[in-house]
């Protein structure tokens, strides 16, 4: 009979996972056990606190659904999602940022030079970009998936007044890696606070705001896919993003422009904002 003690418990639990076949999974479970136990030792975790932690996770499960993951939100507000993004960074490549819960697969394909504005209210914005490798060579086979919220701060999934797939699209870049898209300026908005993550934010006196942003994912054969966001330098919430997604390199200047030919080609008003978006992808590891 093994006599389990405070001193041998952690190693005993680690050994119980030693037969996991997959080497990486074995390592992850071993280190998770190590750090969970270290946390309990360090904090001298009590039964009441342990029970409250389990109840918190139950509340997260109860409020989650196929279209809402409270666990992802928990990872976001704890900074874990951003840490995983930062660990995935590669020299010379555009920095990544949180995916968020509003990405849906299968957005409509549009040509570069299209407009998402349609019936949307808001300030017109021209996004001009080029996808290259880290040496500046254009990636002609790159494609983008783009999504953002509307002028009222809501994504189409949250708002019955918006048509399905409002303000989202996929684009293949042109032969020189460039793309253009007309859209509206996104707005700051609140992450959901009606679940246990909201409890955590309130007890911490933390804000639930995210600064306005576009979401973009970029793929190109032979290169690491990028999931990122583009922020607005004038946004008041840049320093207080509830999910820690802001990186200085992802903050854009919205320039006022009024080029008649561009306005006519892109279906923009005579005066519009423009942002330039160089996107650099790292080679596949
Ligand atoms: C978002 O950017 O849409 C988002 C990201 C994390 C949590 C909630 C929303
Ligand atoms: Fe978002």
What does this structure look like?
With 285 residues, the chain is an alpha/beta fold. The protein has two domains: 1-45, no CATH class; 74-281, Sandwich (Protocatechuate 3,4-Dioxygenase, subunit A). It is 27% helix and 22% strand. The chain has helices at 9-16, 23-43, 47-63, 70-77, 80-87, 196-203, 260-266, and strands at 109-110, 114-115, 124-133, 143-147, 168-172, 178-184, 189-190, 209-210, 213-219, 226-232, 251-252, 255-257, 272-281. The strands form three sheets. The chain has a six-stranded mixed β-sheet, with no helix packed on it. Strands 2-6-3-13-12 form a five-stranded mixed β-sheet, with no helix packed on it. The protein has a two-stranded antiparallel sheet with strand order 7-8. The mean pLDDT is 97. The structure holds benzoic acid and fe (iii) ion (FE). Residues 100, 102, 213, 215 line the site of fe (iii) ion (FE).
Give the secondary structure arrangement, pairings included.
Blueprint lengths: L8 H8 L6 H21 L3 H17 L6 H8 L2 H8 L21 E2 L3 E2 L8 E10 L9 E5 L20 E5 L5 E7 L4 E2 L5 H8 L5 E2 L2 E7 L6 E7 L18 E2 L2 E3 L2 H7 L5 E10 L4
Parallel strand pairs: 1-5, 2-6, 3-13, 10-11
Antiparallel strand pairs: 3-6, 4-5, 4-9, 7-8, 9-10, 12-13
The structure holds benzoic acid and fe (iii) ion.
């Amino acid at each position: 009979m093994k006599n389990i003690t405070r001193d041998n418990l952690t190693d005993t639990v680690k050994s119980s996972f030693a037969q996991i076949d997959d080497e990486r999974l074995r390592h992850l479970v071993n280190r998770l056990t190590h750090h969970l136990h270290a946390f309990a030792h360090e904090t001298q975790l009590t039964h009441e606190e342990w029970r409250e932690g389990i109840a918190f996770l139950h509340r997260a499960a109860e409020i989650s659904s196929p279209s809402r993951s409270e666990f992802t939100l928990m990872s976001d507000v704890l900074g874990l999602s951003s840490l995983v993004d930062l660990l995935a960074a590669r020299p010379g490549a555009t920095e990544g940022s949180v995916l968020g819960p509003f990405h849906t697969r299968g957005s409509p394909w549009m040509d570069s030079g299209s407009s998402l504005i349609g019936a949307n209210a808001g300030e017109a914005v021209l996004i001009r970009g080029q996808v290259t490798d880290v040496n500046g060579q254009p990636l002609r086979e790159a494609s983008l998936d783009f999504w953002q919220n509307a002028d009222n701060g809501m994504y189409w999934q949250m708002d019955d007044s918006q048509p399905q797939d409002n303000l989202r699209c996929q684009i293949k870049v042109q032969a020189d890696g460039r793309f253009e898209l007309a859209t509206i300026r996104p707005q700051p908005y609140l992450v959901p606070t009606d679940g246990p993550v909201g409890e955590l934010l309130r007890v911490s006196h933390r804000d639930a705001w995210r600064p306005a942003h576009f979401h973009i994912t970029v793929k190109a054969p032979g290169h690491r896919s990028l999931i990122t966001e583009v922020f607005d330098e004038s946004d008041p919430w840049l320093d207080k993003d509830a999910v820690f997604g802001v990186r200085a390199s992802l903050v854009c200047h919205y320039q006022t422009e009024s080029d008649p030919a561009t306005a006519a080609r892109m279906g923009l008003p005579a005066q519009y904002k423009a942002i330039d978006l160089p996107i650099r992808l790292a080679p596949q590891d």
